[in-house]
């Protein structure tokens, strides 16, 4: 997981599920945010990324950690629409807020995915209590490493000391549009 230090860009979302009103990062200040970018047809998202997001939501207090899903479609646009996502969310019993990343007028990469420079799905972004991106990772993140980093971010006081990024294994995806057990690259 690579460490970051820039203020998190706003989420560019066209529709929210599991949220009574649009979710904003500004409204979540004071909490650590786990942003999980996924596609419902991404094997690593379904087998690892989404279950990990569900587990994080279950293990940490909601007052400490906000878990947000971002359905960020860069391929198979015709079949991964809002209606299909709504069924997917119900079938997988996902209860945390999930937004649909705003499509780009100029290419296949959605706007939030572009703003966060995400490489594909699954991608995970951790944002600290002040709204700063502290870690960003494409592919599978070890549960223990993620839990440790979340715990450190939650435990930081307002005068934060840098959290060390946990070790990770590099993805083996071999190029644009390639999917393997670690994820699907843009």
Model description:
The protein has one domain: Glutaredoxin. Helices cover 24% and strands 23% of the residues. The chain is built from 4 helices and 10 strands, in the order βββαβαβαβββαββ. It has a 7-stranded mixed β-sheet. Strands 6-10-9 form a 3-stranded antiparallel β-sheet. A hairpin with a 5-residue loop joins β7 (123-127) and β8 (133-138).
Could you name the key traits of this structure?
186 residues, alpha+beta, Glutaredoxin, 7-stranded mixed sheet, 24% helix
Name the average pLDDT: 87
At the fold tier of CATH, the topology name is Glutaredoxin
Question: How many domains?
Answer: 1
Instruction: Say how many strands there are.
Output: 10
Strand order of the largest sheet: 1-8-7-3-4-5-2
Strand content: 15-25%
Question: Structural class of the secondary elements?
Answer: alpha+beta
Give helix and strand order, one letter per element, not per position: EEEHEHEHEEEHEE
- CATH architectural name: 3-Layer(aba) Sandwich
CA distance, first residue to last residue: 18 Å
DSSP helix fraction: 10-25%
Briefly, what CATH class? Alpha Beta
Q: How is the main sheet built? A: 7 strands, mixed
CATH superfamily descriptor: Glutaredoxin
The low-confidence parts are: 158-174
**Number of H- or I-type helical stretches:** 4
């Amino acid at each position: 997981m690579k460490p970051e230090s820039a203020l998190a860009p706003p989420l560019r979302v066209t529709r929210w599920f599991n949220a009574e009103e649009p979710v904003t990062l500004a409204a979540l200040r004071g909490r650590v945010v786990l942003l999980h970018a996924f596609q419902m047809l991404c094997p690593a998202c379904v087998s690892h990324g989404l279950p990990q997001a569900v587990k994080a939501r279950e293990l940490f207090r909601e007052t400490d950690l906000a878990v947000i899903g971002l359905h960020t479609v860069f391929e198979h646009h015709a079949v991964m629409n809002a209606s299909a996502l709504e069924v997917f969310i119900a079938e997988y019993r996902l209860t945390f807020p999930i937004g649909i990343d705003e499509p780009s007028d100029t290419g296949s990469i959605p706007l939030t995915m572009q703003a966060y420079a995400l490489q594909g799905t699954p991608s995970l972004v951790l944002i600290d209590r002040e709204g700063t991106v502290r870690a960003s990772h494409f592919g599978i993140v070890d549960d223990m490493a993620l839990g440790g980093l979340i715990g450190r971010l939650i435990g930081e006081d307002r005068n934060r000391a840098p959290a060390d990024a946990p070790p990770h294994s590099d993805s083996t995806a071999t190029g644009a549009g390639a999917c393997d057990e670690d994820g699907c690259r843009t």
